Amino acid sequence: MSPAPTGTRNDTARPTTTRDRLLSATAQVLSAKGYSETRLTDIAEVAGLRAPAVYHYFSSREELVAEVMTVGQRLVREHVTDALAALPAGTGVVERIETAVEAHLLIELQLSEFATAVTRNAGQLPDDLRDRVRDEGTAYHALWRDLLEQARTEGLLRTGLDPRAARMLVIGALNWTAEWWSPRQSPLPVLVRTAQSLVSAGLFEP
Amino acid sequence: MSPAPTGTRNDTARPTTTRDRLLSATAQVLSAKGYSETRLTDIAEVAGLRAPAVYHYFSSREELVAEVMTVGQRLVREHVTDALAALPAGTGVVERIETAVEAHLLIELQLSEFATAVTRNAGQLPDDLRDRVRDEGTAYHALWRDLLEQARTEGLLRTGLDPRAARMLVIGALNWTAEWWSPRQSPLPVLVRTAQSLVSAGLFEP
DNA sequence: GTCTATAAGTAGATAGAC
DNA sequence: GTCTATCTACTTATAGAC
């Protein structure tokens, strides 16, 4: 497994090794064109190589895509986890969820092409690849499940919400932003505030 | 353009013509495997034919996929429009939006494989195909924009929400259900009620 | 209308030179 | 480590029989 990308969007900007450059190039092409249109030739070209050179670093196209997806999912989870950890001890669950919403949107839309690649392509992978990426995704969902469970325990969750459905609807709203958001139509802070407001009011008792 | 599919999931159940059977088969394969893994051979097999027979009805794979996507997007819009039209005159905007939420989820998850195909694959299409499907999608978003604009005009919309971002987050939450929902994990009515509750509380003043 | 046979094109992967 | 050249497999699409 490679060292984590730098964490500025541009994980593609100043890659050190050729291997990392290939991973970044793959994330970039996956984000822009989707799994079906992602050719090894395109990846190699973005990385400044010819296709056969890829095989010096990865045993197959599948290995390359799998690593990008795993890294991307891990980046999302780590970024959200770190943001929560940075909150003062005793921060309430409402603010914690708003922090998670912001962190998810930032990593997905601004900080990492790897994260975008995961969101846009996880559902399109062939079964074997999807299986290989699943564990990281499960861990991320567990993070949200814990947040909602905490809210429920404290009696803050609105009644009539199925916890699992509510969690998936919220994550879905956030993930779908990768399909439509562009900085030219609405600034990211506007989106973040709207998402925080929508999620808070939707989940919590007034 | 073919006659609309029957509107029970399955549009694939009792198709009359071979052409309709091909469209249904395409919707089914697209929903299950995604655009990248949808082969003409798979489609033909589901329809009970060999691949070359497809060319008797469609000039290319692209034509076939394009028609499925257009039909699917139209079905979603018509189903939601019809559900709204069936409400008594003077029904308030809150209930109208809850009706739209339910109609969207029903057509997408239960009534039409065509609708699922659109939601899961619209973002993965090559550019030329995406352009051809765009108009129907725009019309559907206009429907939601009008609903939210009506809420805003009546002073029901919570402050701090960007209308466009809020609309896309809501539609995104609904669309993403196609990626995760299965009837075995939570019954559809549970999902519908949770989504209605989340959206209503998220959008409207208490 | 649907088939078998096959052409034409493209993508992933390998061989071997440098 | 990266290249050119090539192989193999697969997919769309066409030709022509029935």
What do these coordinates show?
2 copies of one chain form a homodimer. The first copy, chain A, has helices at residues 18-33, 40-47, 61-85, 93-111, 113-121, 127-153, 163-180, 188-203. With 206 residues, the first copy, chain A, is mostly helical. Chain B binds a DNA duplex (18 and 18 nucleotides) through helix 3.
Main interface pair?
A: A-B, 43 and 43 residues
**What's the number of extended β-strand segments of chain A?**
0
Secondary structure: helix percent of chain A = 55-70%
Low-confidence stretches of chain A at least 5 residues in length (pLDDT < 50)?
1-8
Distance separating the two termini of chain A? 46 Å
Please count the helical segments of chain A: 8
Fourth-level CATH superfamily of the domain at 65-203 in chain A? Tetracycline Repressor, domain 2
Quick one: CATH class of the domain at 65-203 in chain A? Mainly Alpha
Helix/strand-derived category of chain A reads mainly alpha
What is the subunit arrangement here? Answer: homodimer
Shape of chain A: elongated
Order of helices and strands of chain A: HHHHHHHH
Q: From the 3D coordinates, which CATH architecture of the domain at 65-203 in chain A would you assign?
A: Orthogonal Bundle
Largest sheet of chain A: none
Average of the residue pLDDT scores of chain A: 94
The CATH topology label of the domain at 65-203 in chain A is: Tetracycline Repressor, domain 2
Strand content of the residues of chain A, in percent?
Answer: under 5%
